[in-house]
Amino acid sequence: MARLTTDQLSEPGSPEDILYYHMIPEYQTEESMYNAVRRFGKVRYDTLRLPHKVTAREADGSVKFGAGEGSAYLFDPDIYTDGRISVQGIDAVLLPPAEDGGKSPAAAAAAAPARRAPAVTGATAKPKLRRGKLLEGACQFMGVFVRRSRFASCQ
């Protein structure tokens, strides 16, 4: 189980990145997640931390997110549901992968797919971050536990 350290939280933008990595921008109940992993084996969900995805699979009769030490089980299902937002409880903090993936350049090149998208010329392209009702709800929710001013997106 991954543990949060003060070093991880003190980096600029790190609390936001961790929080966004826990948010899936679609309505998923415990039943729909469990049915998906039973049917497909492994499901990759988009997160608000673009371009990262979180992987879910069935393990021990429950839904397991992540892999290895950085994994968490769904243990408190459907804390809050209203038809638009569904809050699920997990038993650990999922840490987003490092920007470089933690691999050496040679290992990253070997693992890269054979087909690549055409290169973007000119300015570097960054993925557009999603903002909206889900982020507003998360800011209000996190305002209960942490000062809102710590999150740049909540200001």
UniProtKB/TrEMBL annotation:
Residues 1-97 form the FAS1 domain. Signal peptide: none annotated. It comes from Panicum virgatum. Belongs to the fasciclin-like AGP family. InterPro entries: FAS1_dom_sf, FAS1_domain, FLA15/16/17/18. It comes from the Eukaryota. PANTHER family: FASCICLIN-LIKE ARABINOGALACTAN PROTEIN 16 (PTHR32499), OS07G0160600 PROTEIN (PTHR32499:SF20). This is FAS1 domain-containing protein.
